[in-house]
Design goal:
282 residues, mainly alpha, three-stranded antiparallel β-sheet, elongated
């Protein structure tokens, strides 16, 4: 009944963490508004809405500041701890993370993504229309899911992909690869932008198309409100990338390539011509 905005502070020492992490903690976990300076950089302040007519003694503000300080300290711990090993060194651990019971682990998915991203980049490079980086696409696909086993994503799952891109950049990966990892979940909706570079587009298409073909092959076809793997969003993302980037690619050929990779690599799931037709129609 008494919505009141309070203005809180946090230590400037936390500003050396990436903005994406700080904003996620404030916005998604604490329901605070982050505050920007005039130049666009983060300011060491936050706004919180309380259900009181006033915080006259400042006790509520002090409580919010104490909680936020602890959350930022957790984020700093994970940021420093995760980078004690290189992002690529997390690959073996993905073998123990299930993607889907019939489609195997994330390690298998990454191998399929590498093949499919390389295929997309090769198609565009050979067409002479777009100069795609085949090696960069394969490397970005290799790193794309490695952040799933990091402490940061375990604590802040909203940051998957983004954290991988940040770690890749910190560890000296080329900008093209780091941004591709950062963006590969995009677009999450029709109002969101596509990956900012062509390498990111190849990885995003590979990720989404592998999900579509794989799930259709094992009978996980969206129906009504049931779409646990967000296949509708994946299909919309594929179409948006193709249209916005104007990439020269055949949907039917792409589906056939994804099906061939799924059949030849673990878990070697068979994809019939009928299933491929269903994916194309979808």
């Amino acid at each position: 009944e008494y919505p009141t905005v309070i203005f809180g502070d946090f230590s400037e020492e936390f500003l050396d963490l990436p903005d994406e992490i700080l904003v996620t903690v404030m916005r998604d976990h604490q329901k605070y508004f982050a505050v920007e300076q005039r130049d666009g950089g983060l300011s060491p302040h936050f706004l919180a809405v309380i259900n009181m007519d006033a915080d006259r003694r400042g006790l509520v503000r002090a409580g919010h500041e104490r909680v936020l300080r602890a959350r930022f300290a957790d984020a700093r711990f994970f940021w420093e701890h995760d980078q004690k090993c290189r992002l690529a060194d997390n690959m073996p651990r993905l073998a123990h993370v299930t993607y889907e019971s019939r489609l195997g682990s994330y390690a298998g998915k990454v191998e399929r993504m590498k093949s499919l991203a390389g295929w997309f980049a090769g198609q565009w490079f050979n067409s002479g229309i777009l100069q795609a980086d085949v090696a960069g696409s394969v490397r970005a696909a290799e790193l794309a899911k490695c952040d799933l086993v990091t402490g940061m994503v375990g604590e802040f799952p909203e940051l998957q992909g983004i954290v991988g891109g940040l770690y890749a950049k910190e560890q000296g990966e080329p900008d093209e690869v780091a941004w591709a990892v950062y963006d590969h979940y995009r677009p999450l909706g029709l109002d969101e932008s596509i990956p900012r570079n062509l390498t990111g587009c190849t990885v995003a298409l590979a990720d989404k198309l592998d999900a579509l073909v794989g799930c259709f092959a094992v009978g996980m076809i969206p129906s009504g409100s049931s779409d646990p793997f967000a296949l509708r969003r994946a299909a919309l993302g594929i179409v948006k990338i193709i249209l916005d980037r104007k990439v020269p690619v055949s949907l039917s050929a792409s589906i056939s390539a994804a099906a061939g990779i799924l059949e030849s690599q673990p878990p070697k799931t068979q994809v019939s011509a009928q299933v491929q037709a269903q994916v194309l129609e979808f």
